[in-house]
Amino acid sequence: WAKEYKHVCKRACQRAVDRLKAGALAVEAVTAALVELEDSPFTNAGMGSNLNLSGGIECDASIMDGKSLHYGAVGAISGIKNPVLVANRLLSEAQRGKLSAGRIPPCFLVGRGAHDWAVSHGIPPCPSEKMATKFSLSAYKRNKRKMELAEKLDTGHNQTKKRRQSCENENGSGCLDTVGAVVVDLEGNVAAAVSSGGLAMKHPGRVGQAAHYGCGCWAENTCNMNPYSTAVSTSGCGEHLIRTMLARECSTAMQSEDAHQALLEAMQNKFISSPFLASEDRVLGGVIVLRCCRCVEAPPSQNIQGILVEFLWSHTTESMCVGYMSAQDSKAKTHISRLPPGTVPGQCLAIEGGVCRLSVVE
């Protein structure tokens, strides 16, 4: 599916850039990118999400605004075509302040409550059966047969181990293809978002990293303490990413001068070799990272400033598809990043990235 992944990444980048060119802030642009990614039947988010153990679809999504530092998220939500729209609405509603009688507005809703809140705020419902695709349904049937066979052959510990392996072997990276995006706007504001249908054959009610604060995404504008604005989105095995809070860890690491080295060390020390995952033989995850700072490109009298933007990605999974684009580009660039030949997924990592300088007239 490499071709389809590249195409949807290009469309998502174009959608976000179109919003930025129209004057939208980063949080609106990142939402637009995620809607495009969720609507693709080839991604494990929104339409075409993995089916859970009961044959249902439950999605997770979150978004963070680096300017306000507000965050919105939904977990295990069913019957909503674009979970990121609910997360974004939770974020914007929270920015409006307290509810009646001084109640604090929610930032994270799950299950039926999340669905009902979404509908009451004008987000249309979508029957779960319409969100399933022929790909997700056939994968569910294959997994179901494998699990039934494993349960007949094994008991106790071996049964549990066999069941887990059958899911991993059947779906490969398909279990883990969470979607995400990171954006910086012309004002230098950053935003990040993430959305996922979760692991195939997950237990109903399971919530992955895509909804958890500091685990699925992170965005933080520059301030006195932080010289760089940073935005991060993660993908991979949700349980591994939750236990390491990888999004926030990578954001913190990005305040070092050498971004490439900082991300390398964060992925190695805070993820692959994390003491919180010492019992895991394979630690599966990936991140996209954006960091930026303002820099003077010309004499101050000309009122021309530049935003130095660095975009990096790293993963321990076998592969990861990335796309990137600036408002100055005519089209998005896409790339399938892969682990070096001969390396073991979950035990080694790949890391790549580049620098872009954007001119801003004020």
TrEMBL record:
UniProt keyword Secreted, yes or no = no
Top-level lineage group = Eukaryota
Site (described: Cleavage): 177-178
Identify a single GO molecular function assigned to this protein. threonine-type endopeptidase activity
Q: Catalytic center at which residues?
A: 178
Which keywords accompany this UniProt record?
Hydrolase, Protease, Zymogen
What is the annotated signal peptide range for this record?
none
Query: What is this protein's record name?
Result: Threonine aspartase 1
> Highest lineage ranks of the organism?
Eukaryota, Metazoa, Chordata, Craniata, Vertebrata
